[in-house]
Design brief:
This protein has a single domain, classed as 2-Layer Sandwich (Nucleotidyltransferase, domain 5). Helices cover 28% and strands 29% of the residues. The protein contains 3 helices and 5 strands. The chain has a 5-stranded mixed sheet. Strand 1 and strand 2 form a beta hairpin. The longest helix is centred in the middle third of the chain and has 18 residues. It is elongated. It starts with 10 loop residues before the first strand and ends in a 17-residue tail after the last strand.
């Protein structure tokens, strides 16, 4: 899919960083300038353990999606990073707000073979 055909004025890129404790959503424009950022912890404003629930990612996605629609953005590319519980729910929240997703990329870094193990000890 060629993204250059889209009008850059109504296209944004949404980065989702999902950890076990929190989910961070950051929206940038076509050139990479940050438009807005939402987190589960900022929206829920409760105890630390409550940030780990997937429903908070849904609320953060809806909040970010409505903000971007108010700014005039209609199309988006989503880049997901991490293994947290809020990955899919954040995307569902963006869709529920009415923002159209053109592409979903998973940019999680996975070690293919990992580091070399230590030499065995000889006695």
């Amino acid at each position: 899919m060629n993204l250059r055909k889209d009008n850059p004025s109504n296209f944004c890129i949404i980065n989702i960083n999902s950890t076990q404790n929190n989910t961070i959503l950051t929206a940038t424009n076509f050139l990479g300038k940050v438009l807005s950022s939402r987190t589960k912890g900022f929206l829920l404003k409760s105890k630390k353990g409550k940030k780990a629930v997937p429903q908070g990612a849904l609320l953060a996605g809806e909040s970010l999606g409505t903000f971007l629609i108010e700014k005039g953005y209609t199309f988006s590319q989503v880049r997901i990073k991490g293994f947290g519980s809020g990955r899919e729910n954040a995307v569902q929240g963006i869709l529920a707000a009415g923002l159209q997703i053109r592409e979903i990329l998973d940019i999680t870094k996975i070690p293919h073979n990992g580091c070399r193990s230590k030499k065995s000890r000889r006695i």
